[in-house]
């Protein structure tokens, strides 16, 4: 079993990578590079999945009676993961809006 600090840092790093990748994806979508945006969002999804796996491992251990010590670092890690997960939902929607705007500017209908 890894200590709580190592686990926390893994979650923070993966969630931070995901957020950075999503911001890059949004930047790419803003200039119409939807292929790059999609690729970055896929990478971000993998990063979030990695952080979530680490979190699930902790939850599984606790369900088996192996309690973790309280750690403000873990609270911080959970905050990073939840923010990344929320950002993923919002940034996906924003990229879709950029797609629609690109279509409209090419004569398509916005619906």
The overall number of domains is 1
Computed CA radius of gyration, to the nearest angstrom: 18 Å
In CATH, what is the class? Mainly Alpha
Strand content: under 5%
N- to C-terminal separation?
51 Å
Shape estimate = elongated
Which regions are unreliable across 5 or more consecutive residues at pLDDT < 50? none
How many strand segments? 0
Order of H and E elements: HHH
Largest sheet: none
CATH-level-2 architecture? Up-down Bundle
Classification by helices and strands: mainly alpha
Q: What is the mean pLDDT?
A: 93
CATH superfamily placement? Phosphotransferase system, lactose/cellobiose-type IIA subunit
Instruction: Examine the coordinates and then state which fold CATH places here, giving the name of the CATH topology.
Output: Methane Monooxygenase Hydroxylase, Chain G, domain 1
Percent of residues in helices: over 70%
In DSSP terms, counting alpha (H) and pi (I) runs of 4 or more, how many helices?
Answer: 3
């Amino acid at each position: 079993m890894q200590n709580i600090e190592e686990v926390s840092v893994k979650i923070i790093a993966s969630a931070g990578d995901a957020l950075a990748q999503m911001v890059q994806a949004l930047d790419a979508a803003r200039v119409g590079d939807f292929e790059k945006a999609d690729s970055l969002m896929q990478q971000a999804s993998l990063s979030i999945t990695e952080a979530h796996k680490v979190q699930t491992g902790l939850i599984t251990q606790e369900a088996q009676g192996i309690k973790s010590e309280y750690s403000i670092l873990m609270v911080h890690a959970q905050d990073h993961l939840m923010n990344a997960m929320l950002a993923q939902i919002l940034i996906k929607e924003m990229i879709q809006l950029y797609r629609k705007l690109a279509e409209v500017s090419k004569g398509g209908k916005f619906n």
